[in-house]
Amino acid sequence: MEGSRLVVCSLRGAPAIVLACMALAGVVLVSCSNLQRAVVSVPTIEGATFVGNASCVDCHSNYTRIFPSSPHARIHVANAPRAEATGCESCHGPASLHVQAGGGRGRFIINPGREPQACLNCHLEVHAQFQLPHHHPVLEQRMNCVQCHDPHGADIFKASHRTAFGARASTGLARLNETCAQCHREQAKPVIYEHEALRDGCTVCHHPHGSVADKMLMQRDNNLCLRCHAQVHAINGELFIGDVPHTTFVSRGACWSAGCHTAIHGSNIDRALRH
Ligand code: HEC
Ligand code: HEC
Ligand code: HEC
Ligand code: HEC
Ligand code: HEC
Ligand code: HEC
Ligand code: HEC
Questions:
Q1: Alpha-carbon gap, residue 185 to 68, rounded angstroms
Q2: Pocket lining for ligand 7, CB < 6 angstroms
Q3: Which long-range contacts (CB under 8 A, 24 or more apart) does 111-115 make?
Q4: Are 205 and 256 in contact (CB under 8 A)?
Q5: What is the pLDDT of residues 181-208, one digit of tens each?
Q6: Taking the domains of the chain in order of start, what are their residue ranges?
Q7: Which residues are bridge partners to 211 per DSSP?
Q8: Do residues 232 and 239 lie in contact, with contact meaning Cβ atoms separated by under 8 Å?
Q9: Helix (H) / strand (E) containing 188
Q10: Which element (helix H / strand E) includes 232?
Q11: What sign results for the dihedral spanned by CA atoms 190, 195, 200, 201?
Q12: Which of 40, 82, 95, 200 is deepest in the core (most CB within 10 A)?
């Protein structure tokens, strides 16, 4: 493995719908010039050179067809001979020998499989998130990046079609909850009294990778809830949240602690989200 520079070009020709989805996911699109960055390592294959995404079309059209609007499609490895994008090879390694050999499993090409290191080579900041005190057990090899991120498709924030339960396509933030629901059915199941916060996605309250707070919460205290539910002080000093006096309640602990809104993901018995 040796150092290599990486250039990411603008979202040329990406359909508007994709841009809209990315905006919903809170993704900020930066211009090409901002995205130049040094990459720790692009995989190498002895004797092989980069040939570009177009070389894969003949044999892997199932991937090349869906790939152009993926954020990784814009990647160009700077020392590649051609001017064209080398996104496929930034994860799979230079493919000249694979192409010459007529392809094949295990033939001069890297299949990262479920190995998170293939992604962490470039996403260093994500590596740090998975080392926070409360995190999804990815580095522990109990789960992996592609269970939540499709490396080939237009929607990187969706589970890979190879790992997702069912192939139900959906749009917007609902798909994000579906990704989580693969493993956390209990929190995503339909209920009589839903908590509308979930419509904004599980990630309004949970960091998907890791957090300093227990249960990977974005904030460890009542501020988690007060972002959306205003806390109002009446003239007599009484504290109101959602038109209900809360002065004695808030001193008992977090909003979701025992006796309070324990059914935070929705309830079948109480509108006030209690079990
Ligand atoms: C001449 C046809 C051909 C071309 C061109 C080709 N491949 Fe393949 N490749 C194959 C075949 C056949 C397999 C075996 C698996 C299969 O049938 O899907 C394969 C397998 C792979 C695998 C899985 C390897 C494994 O060990 O599991 C990867 C990754 C891959 N190719 C990437 C690429 C990339 C990236 C390109 C373009 C730079 C490319 N291939 C170009 C035919 C080709
Ligand atoms: C962001 C990294 C990344 C990029 C970019 C990428 N892939 Fe992959 N690819 C993966 C990972 C990870 C797997 C293994 C996924 C799994 O096992 O679920 C994989 C698997 C494959 C396989 C093997 C599938 C099988 O049957 O086992 C082929 C073929 C392949 N990719 C081709 C491509 C082609 C062609 C491109 C460009 C159009 C591309 N990949 C771009 C990460 C990437
Ligand atoms: C060769 C370096 C490289 C590799 C390997 C790589 N990525 Fe990326 N990834 C990038 C770049 C560059 C971008 C787009 C620029 C950006 O948003 O920072 C990106 C974008 C993303 C995004 C979207 C980020 C956003 O804010 O829009 C996700 C999610 C992502 N990658 C996940 C993965 C996963 C999962 C893997 C492994 C299967 C992987 N990446 C492998 C370089 C890489
Ligand atoms: C449990 C599901 C899950 C797993 C596992 C996961 N991610 Fe993510 N990731 C997400 C979600 C959801 C977002 C979007 C967060 C948001 O919009 O607030 C995200 C965002 C990202 C981003 C862009 C934002 C950022 O924080 O930089 C990158 C890059 C990324 N993930 C890479 C990875 C890599 C690499 C791995 C594996 C080492 C991985 N992810 C594993 C769910 C996951
Ligand atoms: C592939 C399966 C999988 C997916 C997908 C997944 N998780 Fe998890 N989640 C786990 C595992 C495994 C643990 C660790 C449980 C343990 O340590 O006992 C976990 C733990 C958690 C915890 C902490 C639970 C606790 O009791 O401390 C939260 C919160 C959580 N996940 C939220 C999410 C969210 C939000 C998403 C979607 C962005 C998501 N998960 C997607 C498997 C998954
Ligand atoms: C309004 C904020 C909020 C939203 C949105 C949210 N959660 Fe939670 N979640 C919490 C809180 C608070 C806890 C901690 C509960 C406790 O400690 O008793 C929690 C706990 C969890 C746990 C640990 C097990 C448990 O129930 O205590 C999992 C797993 C989990 N959430 C998954 C999800 C998933 C999946 C989604 C999306 C479908 C989601 N959460 C959406 C606030 C939220
Ligand atoms: C992303 C915004 C958001 C966050 C964060 C959020 N909520 Fe909500 N919550 C809503 C919306 C929207 C409603 C429905 C409208 C309403 O009743 O205010 C709601 C409704 C409720 C209700 C039902 C009110 C009633 O009587 O009908 C309770 C209880 C509640 N939330 C508690 C919490 C708690 C506790 C937290 C923190 C763990 C929290 N919420 C975090 C948006 C949010």
A1: 32
A2: 195-197, 200, 204-205, 224-225, 227-229, 242, 255-256, 261, 264, 271-273
A3: 114/144, 114/146, 115/144
A4: no
A5: 999 999 999 999 999 999 989 999 999 9
A6: 2-111, 113-203, 221-275
A7: 134
A8: yes
A9: helix 185-188
A10: strand 231-233
A11: negative
A12: 95
Phi, psi for 186 (deg, rounded to 5)? -55, -45
Lowest mean pLDDT among 1-10, 12-21, 36-45, 138-147: 12-21
pTM: 0.90
Position in ligand 5 atom list of the atom nearest CA 206: 35
Task: Check residue 112 and report its DSSP letter.
Answer: -
Cα of 187 vs centre of ligand 6, distance in Å, is 7
231 burial level (CB within 10 Å; 0-12, 13-18, 19+): middle
Distance CA 38, CA 31 (A): 16
